[in-house]
Amino acid sequence: MIKANVFYPNGADSKFDMDYYLTKHMPLVKDRFGGALKGASVDQGIAGGLPGSPATYAAVCSLLFDSVGDLQSAMGAHAAELMADIPNFTNVQPTIQVSEVKM
């Protein structure tokens, strides 16, 4: 199983519209990726590791695929459209990490 994590950094000047992300962007992602997408989750950051510290990330999205090839095909076909939607919900540049799920 392959997981693509999308990290949206949190900061003093960052904005993140979770409502838009959940009701507009994620349905777009699911529609465009279709059957290649095996699962998805969205986490909203609420705190850092130390008491009273802010969350490192405003949000983290995890997308599951059977293979890197499936991820690349889905992303390649729709990356431009999905990236163009980013300014509608945040003013930060996300970081993406692709991982192989081990457990």
Task: Compose a concise summary of this entry.
The protein has 103 residues and is α+β, with helices and mostly antiparallel strands.
3D architecture notes:
- The structure is a single chain.
- The protein has two helices and four strands.
- The chain has 103 residues and is of the alpha+beta class.
- It has a single domain, classed as Alpha-Beta Plaits, CATH 3.30.70.100.
- It is globular and about 40 Å long.
- The mean pLDDT is 97.
Q: Major sheet, described briefly?
A: 4 strands, antiparallel
String of helices and strands = EHEEHE
Question: Approximately what portion of the residues adopt beta-strand conformation?
Answer: 25-35%
Beta strands, count: 4
Specify the overall morphology. globular
Number of helices: 2
Q: What Rg, in angstroms, do the CA atoms define?
A: 14 Å
Tell me the name of the CATH class.
Answer: Alpha Beta
The N- and C-terminal alpha carbons lie at a distance of 10 Å
Structural class: alpha+beta
Percent range of helical residues: 25-40%
By CATH, the topology is Alpha-Beta Plaits
Corresponding CATH architecture: 2-Layer Sandwich
Spatial order of the strands in the main sheet?
A: 2-3-1-4
Number of individual domains: 1
The low-confidence runs, each spanning 5 or more residues with pLDDT under 50, are: none
- Overall average pLDDT: 97
